[in-house]
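Shift notes (night). Ran Endonuclease/Exonuclease/phosphatase family protein while the centrifuge was going.
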Amino acid sequence: MSARPTSVRPVRALVAGVVVLLTSTLLAAPAGASDAAERRNTNPTGTRSGSLPNGAGNLKVRLAATADGRIRVGWDRSRAKQFKRYTVLVSPGRQMRTQVKAYRVSRKRSALVVDRAVGATPASGNYSFVKVYGVRRNGSKTASQTKWIQAPITSRCTAAARDQVTIGLFNVRTWAADRNLGPRRNWTHRGPNAIREILRSGAHAIAIQEASGSERLGFGKKPQKKWILDRLNATDPDKGARWVDALSDDAYRPPKGRVPGLVGTRVFYDASKYRKLDAGLARIVDPGFKKDSLIAWARLQSVRGDQAPFVLSSNHLRVGVVGSVKEWRIRARQTRKTIEVLGGLQRRFGGQVFLAGDLNSTNNTKPSNNVHQMLMRAGYYDAYATTRISGSKFPTTQDSKFPLYKTPLRRDYILSLGPVKGSCGYRNQIYRKPSRIASDHFMQVAQMPLA
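Came back to this:
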């Protein structure tokens, strides 16, 4: 049985943020067979993603999925006489500062079944982060290391290889941000690396963000988007490759009274592999943001004609000040508009619609990862929700800092909307050396089923 909520109030002494406190009145779980099962279950989804193994660290916390999709949290109570009680915290983010649930537990207990973190649904690919505190009789505390476990995957990929498509996502970082950086960090160095990242991804349909650098900034006599396409065509090992932008510059011209907006939001594809059936640009006008977010989309189909067509959209939401509720609300309005636009495309064309973009919202975003949670409620499936995932130990962004920090944290997302649920594979395409830096984001690659 799981702990049941009996009261709700903040626990500021333990963790900052929104906390739901739940008091457990259940008896201690019996030792024996259940403990042995816990030791055998090493929480593979968590340990593959950087979590400590079961039984490691202070209080020797263990996590295991229950048959009904919740989490059994176990811990060492060999020092129980020192404690007044335990508190188990569960949050969508490792920093334990958003949508935290706190369960107060008797010192006689050594295990507790808890609900998954907010937003950790089977379609989300999200993790539940868990931490256990021991509260001593004198009021002091000791804490376990935070551990995590992924939501159970209930939609498996059953599509044949010919019914799958490789989707790429890459925020290349505008070279306008490089003006005050030296040649070892600016586009002179990053640009060739960015091309290598795209080519090694194996994707031929890619949602691009921030390819907005002007030719006036000293990195060549052409704008950044053209620089990228020309280099792809010049260096792709496939001599028949023909990389193009799905939309012309005319499509990005703003209406009267509006600035151009986030014009680096593009869909690039290899026209030797896909034919364009349709394309368009939607402009998200928000009263709180002068620069419009844009939704660039293209309906593509394999030139072989043996695959269902699909829609790929490139998306980039407002970034703003970290922790700003104003920016959080802007992104919520932009997400509602995105859901409206892409839902309309799915109803118009049928089949699968893929949303790929830098959504500037993570599970550490205060007060919540509202963007992702809204998309999940709208029926999207996250490509990260797969048993075939690599690079999950690391964030999708690294802020140009090395060595990489080990934790699953996403700002960049690939999601699908349509009759087929599931993901056939996901790769956070990391590198560990500063010499390979291509952007402050890693490229994301997903293998997705088609309708």
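The domain at 161-449 is CATH 3.60.10.10 (Deoxyribonuclease I; Chain A). The helical segments are 33-40, 44-47, 187-201, 224-235, 325-349, 370-377.
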